[in-house]
Amino acid sequence: MMIFMVLIPVLLLLGLVLIVIFTKNMKRTRLKKKFHRNFIFGYLLLLLLGLVVAEVMERKVEHQNPPKVNVEDVEFDLPAAIIEGTPIPEKFVLAKRSHKVKGELVIPSFTNAYLLIERTPDNSHTITETVYTPELMANIGDENDVYYDVTERLESALPIWESNLMTVPKQPLNNIQYTFYHDSNILNQFTGEKTYGYSSGSVSRSMTIHLIVPESIVLKLPELENEYGTYIDVIE
Amino acid sequence: MFTTQWSVNELAKRQYLFKLSTNGAVFTTLIVLQIIGTIFISGAGSTFMNDWGEGITFNFTSISNDGQVGLTLFWALIVGFLLTSAAQRNESFSFVTNRLTFQLANFYFICTAALLGGVTTVLLGSVMKIVALFGDNIIIETTGLLTSPLDFFSRILVMTAYTLLLMMIGYLLGTLIQFSKLFIVLFGLIWFMYFTFGINLSVGEGESLLYFYYGETSILLFILKVVVSVSVLFGISFFVTNRLEVRNP
Question: With an 8 Å Cβ cutoff, is A98 touching chain B?
Fold first, then answer.
């Protein structure tokens, strides 16, 4: 606070001195009045040209904006929906496959995915696998209930099945970059476009694998917990 | 007896045109400030990074015209202050004039400068938008002129209004200091008390003076507030200037 108390008047004085020197020097160098007029009109013309270019460019890249989702969609609890059997939007489904496995199913340890195993009391040897997309919702601005769904930009690697072995490969690194433009909040006082774009809140979910495994198949699972917590849940 | 009888408005208008032609450097300064600001700010968007340790990293670069808005408001405050300088006042003696026409000419000049500041700052937003459009995966939160013309013009109105307010505040501060140098001490004291004891100008329960304007959601009420404030500031300046000595150094 004390820094501002000193810094702001110093900056104001410095600005004042600079502007006075600049203005006086301009007068002293006897720039013709016509120069100032032409400079101002030239600048305005340039800005108008900038406006036209921005309008045209904006229309061309508009479709690239990620879709917006409301906060209630962001808070969709996928594991709970799987367990309770409530409807899951199709957009979350990355792959739906079935595999014939005899005897036992071996799953080595893995990272960056969550596995939910549901046991069924039948003696078939078919495992049903549903893979749900990882998810990333970005809220650029902390007072905004609208999130940007950038899930489509996430890359994921599906589990690999070889006979009675299911391997979850190392997930590709997802480094997502966005450039966010917004006019100053002070200008948007009456447009309803006030943003607080200096902080971000995000919701992410790693890839979820749901396996329906008959009880006749013996499970050979790694440790159910890793450094991030439980990453395999078995529903009996 | 004179062969030509000039009205107050005609005199003020002539003085205003004279001011416009002699103070071209003031506008050129704004443009230079905005250009320098844009060059420096456009390459320095704020970058934020989120890493959850799950192989997902989300980075976004935030670009806006906040910097240009700040620079324009800063320029407005200083130009308002400079208009009360002795040189500016003495310049008016080139005309057969009085305090009223001098003040009116200054007011017209301030309005013109505010309009130019408002229009150029909003238009500069388009330049910043172009810079952003060259970035990765652009998200644009601000509607353009064709998408929402009313919003675009409301931005110009708001920026002009704030520039006008800041100019009038600078003008009043300059006038008071011209009236008595003791005001420098007083302003310094207010500044010190503001930061030391947190004394704040408020217009209601927990609402700062800034919120009085910024928190307004009705455009008509906002215009009314600005018009009233500008009239009050101008009125005080006029009253104080009337009490100044002629050719006060």
Answer: no
| Torsion angle defined by CA atoms of residues A88, A90, A93 and A99, in that order, rounded to the nearest 10 degrees | 90
pLDDT for the residue A211: 92
- Which residue pairs from B86-93 have beta carbons closer than 8 angstroms and sit at least 24 positions apart in sequence? B86/B178, B86/B247, B86/B248, B86/B249, B89/B178, B89/B247, B89/B248, B90/B247, B91/B18, B91/B19, B91/B22, B92/B15, B93/B247
pTM: 0.77
Q: Where are the alpha helices (DSSP H) in B43-148?
A: 66-82, 86-91, 99-133
Judged by a CB distance cut-off of 8 A, whether residue A23 touches chain B is: yes
Chain B residues whose CB is inside 8 A of the A29 CB are none
**Does the predicted interface ipTM exceed a cut of 0.90?**
no
Predicted confidence band at B148 (pLDDT cuts at 50, 70, 90)? confident
Three-state secondary-structure class, residue B57: strand
Both tokens of A188, joined, read 């948007």
What backbone torsions phi and psi does residue B224 show, to the nearest 5 degrees? -60, -45
Assign 3-state DSSP to chain B and report helix, strand, coil percentages, each to 5. 70, 10, 20
Range 130-169 of A in CB contact (< 8 A) with B: 134, 136, 138, 140, 148, 150, 153-154
Q: Could you read off the pLDDT of B193-214 as tens digits, one per residue?
A: 776 666 555 555 556 677 888 8
Split at pLDDT 50, 70, 90, the class of B130 is confident
B223: distance to nearest CA of chain A, Å? 12
Residue B42 φ then ψ, to 5°: -60, -30
